[in-house]
Amino acid sequence: MMTPSIAITFEGDHIRAESRGDKSIAWAREFWSAVVDACTENDCYKVLGISESLVVMPIMDGFDHVELFRELGINTKYRIAWVELNPAAIKTVRFVDAALFNRMLPGRLFKDEEEARKWLFSDRGY
Description:
By secondary structure, the chain is of the alpha/beta class.
């Protein structure tokens, strides 16, 4: 088991949020709380997330993300582009993406950082 690492930096026009390691809903709460703090501190709500999940979060934890986002105040003010580097984790992340999208909460999954950046800085909607 690998304790997840988190690196969140303000890049001038967006927040870059990177993580690597084993994932759980407890990790997600810590991670997204830190992202919200960085966004608020820098008055910047565009987030580029890059993740490499080593132990994949259970797919049913996707439902918990909906409540987590609501609790933390992550709403349509945010624009979140997400890249998962581990192909084995894509199914779970896709489920989280769909759960958020269906409840009009922010967050889109992309195949690579280039695609994520294009969307993050475009005028295209969710």
